[in-house]
Design a protein that fits this description.
Blueprint lengths: L1 H8 L9 H11 L5 E4 L5 H10 L4 E4 L3 H8 L10 H9 L3 E4 L10 E4 L14 H11 L7 E4 L7 H17 L8 E4 L18 E5 L2 H11 L6 E4 L2 H32 L4 H8 L23 H11 L5 H27 L8 E5 L14 H12 L3 E5 L5 E5 L5 E5 L5 H6 L2 E4 L8 H7 L3 E3 L14 E3 L6
Helix pairs in contact: 2-8, 6-7, 9-11, 9-12, 12-13
This protein binds nicotinamide-adenine-dinucleotide.
Length: 470
């Protein structure tokens, strides 16, 4: 409650409230505001369906025409969105997807939810934000509010999006904060997390002006219980990076300790973390793994270190944690090589089965998955027969570090498949994997997630990352 109160405890005095803000406020109150979501992926589609589900006419914009066709037929492709919820808003005419910006003029509130990747040299690639902002600018009119949600470095909202909008606004005599509005509100969705949904995950909002912050907070309050306003978009942008870098740094710390436990022998990092987590204050458990994945944690730190360089500042913690985390797939590959050598089989004849290629448990997202890196590295070492099984990922295509395109199909995980491979590598701890059967029939298991911790039998053939015997 405290956060909502904060949002509305010091509202702008009535006489300073710009008329256009008042109009938008009324439209939100009577649900006549049209919401526009640019980028209908993991972030944008759930948000669009959420607003449409609350009765707002919602337009989704995506350059991917195939996605747009599917959505307008009520076909869902994002795990966190319920098929029935999407179908309902499509059938009720509350949600419509568009593959161009022709209808952008109808939109009162835009959300920009486009990708923010890095270049091959790990510099920020803001071209998607730029193109979304240009799409909005072409249709800019009085009364519109733009909320950037893509994770990015501090000053993107004011330094990149604002000038693009202002160029068009000037031609129309529109002023930011008076006639149209701009804010940053980072996304906190955690795909696959059933406990925290859009509604019960607090959001942070920072507008370019006070009216921008208040309007954006009001918009977010339509779908989120708790809104925490901050003094500027830069604070909100930095806050999001802090959240993700906090994870990256802490994961790096346990990854380093996991390797130390393996070096010392006889100490399991998993048991250590479990024990430390009994402390009721001042400690938060993080777990080791085969490397970072997904669109956020492996990428976002580079957005900040890139910005820092402009200020002659080296973000040593960030660089160090990236280094430790990026080493993990190499460490896993060394363990797989040892497991092959133990048998002994030449690498070229070894058959390796990778269990799980999604970057984390129970999701279908393979972006930057450490599994693809491990497959790539094993192939470089000369392992030719590599298969994978993942109930969430029927087929996998990715580009290797040498630029080669690889396409693999998931194999069925049964006794035959387990026995046919020399080493089975658990890369993702999907709940659906039959761990008892895996322990029974796989010749050797390299377990990077401690996923077989509850399996009491066949422990002698299980090598656990950080288990002291990796
Ligand atoms: N996925 C997550 O869990 C998560 C969590 C928090 C924040 N984020 C951030 O949210 C942003 C979006 O991530 P995502 O995972 O939803 O990406 P995504 O790749 O799943 O979806 C992005 C969509 O945007 C579309 N697109 C790209 N450029 C466009 C343009 N100019 N106009 C219209 N559509 C365009 C793409 O076709 C795609 O459908 C990123 O900045 C990411 O870092 C993601």
């Amino acid at each position: 409650m405290r956060m909502i109160e904060q949002a509305i405890s010091e509202p702008m005095s009535e006489k300073h409230w710009p008329p256009q803000a008042g109009t938008l406020q009324e439209k939100l109150r009577d649900k006549t505001a049209t919401i526009g979501v640019i980028g209908l992926g993991y972030v944008g589609l759930p948000l669009a369906v959420e607003f449409a589900g609350k009765g707002f006419h919602t337009l989704g914009f995506d350059l991917n025409a195939e996605r747009v066709i599917r959505l307008n037929e009520g076909q869902n492709y994002i795990q966190d969105v319920e098929n029935a919820a999407l179908r309902k808003v499509v059938e009720e005419g509350l949600f419509r997807a568009e593959d161009d910006f022709a209808r952008a003029g109808e939109v009162d509130v835009f959300f920009i939810c486009v990708p923010t990747p890095v270049t091959p040299y790990k510099d920020p690639d803001t071209s998607y934000i730029r193109s979304a902002a240009e799409g909005i600018a072409a249709h800019l009119r009085a009364g519109q509010l733009v909320i950037l949600k893509s994770t990015t470095y501090p000053d993107t909202t004011e330094g990149l999006v604002q000038p693009i909008l202002e160029q068009k606004a000037r031609q129309q005599g529109l002023h930011l904060g008076r006639d149209y509005f701009l804010a940053f509100s980072p996304e906190r969705i955690d795909p696959g997390n059933k406990a925290f949904t859009t509604a019960n995950t607090p959001v942070v909002v920072g507008g370019v002006t006070q009216a921008c912050t208040e309007l954006a907070s009001l918009v977010m309050q339509q779908v989120v219980h708790l809104v925490h306003p901050v003094s500027s978009p830069k604070v909100a942008e930095m806050e999001k990076l802090l959240e993700n870098i906090f994870r990256s740094v802490n994961i790096a710390l346990v990854n380093e300790l996991a390797r130390l436990c393996d070096r010392i022998g006889g100490i399991s990092i998993w048991e250590v973390v479990e024990a430390a987590a009994t402390k009721p204050f001042g400690f938060m458990p993080f777990y080791p793994g085969p490397g970072l994945g997904g669109h956020c944690i492996p990428i976002d730190p580079y957005y900040l270190s890139w910005l820092a360089r402009k200020y002659d500042f080296e973000t040593s913690f960030i660089t160090l944690s990236a280094h430790v985390n990026e080493e993990m797939p190499f460490y896993v590959v060394e363990a797989v090589q040892r497991a092959i050598a133990e048998q002994p089989i030449p690498l070229r004849d070894a058959k390796v089965l990778i269990l799980g290629v999604a970057f984390k448990a129970n999701v279908d997202d393979v972006r930057h998955s450490p599994a693809t890196r491990v497959i790539d590295l094993l192939r470089e070492k000369g392992v030719k027969k590599i298969h994978y099984s993942d109930p969430f990922v029927p087929s996998l295509s990715f580009r290797t570090h040498r630029g080669e395109s690889l396409q693999l199909a998931s194999v069925e995980l049964d006794r035959e498949a387990l026995e046919a491979h020399d080493v089975v590598v658990v890369m993702t701890d999907h709940g659906a994997f039959p761990y008892a059967q895996i322990a029974e029939h796989a010749p050797v298991i390299v377990d990077t997630r401690n996923a077989l911790k509850h399996i009491p039998h066949n422990r002698d053939k299980i090598r656990v990352l950080g288990g002291g015997d990796f």
